[in-house]
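W.,

You were right to be curious about this one. When I first looked at the sequence I had no strong expectations either way, so I just let the prediction run and decided to look at it fresh. Below is the sequence, 87 residues in total, followed by the output.
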Amino acid sequence: MRAGGVGLVRFTISGRHFNLSREQVEKALSGVEPEPPKLHAVQIGRHMFPVKQALSQVTGLDRLDFHSTDARRVFRRLGFKLLRAGV
């Protein structure tokens, strides 16, 4: 684990196991155009992504295979800022 931060976060969604770090998320979303958030969003760098778009992009999971609650839990554990959009 790096000083003052989070190391790898381990989680299982739809029977698939993942290990992610903040750096892996930031790298995977670098250059990706965020869709307009509908309700739940995560701030990655200067961009606000819908949580399901971000987790799908990072893991390769289909958005129908998980709930926004799953995505929010992962990003919260990684220390990203979560927002409610469009409210």
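Here's what jumped out at me. The mean pLDDT is 91. And, maybe more interesting for your project: The radius of gyration is 12 Å.

Coffee later to discuss?

I.
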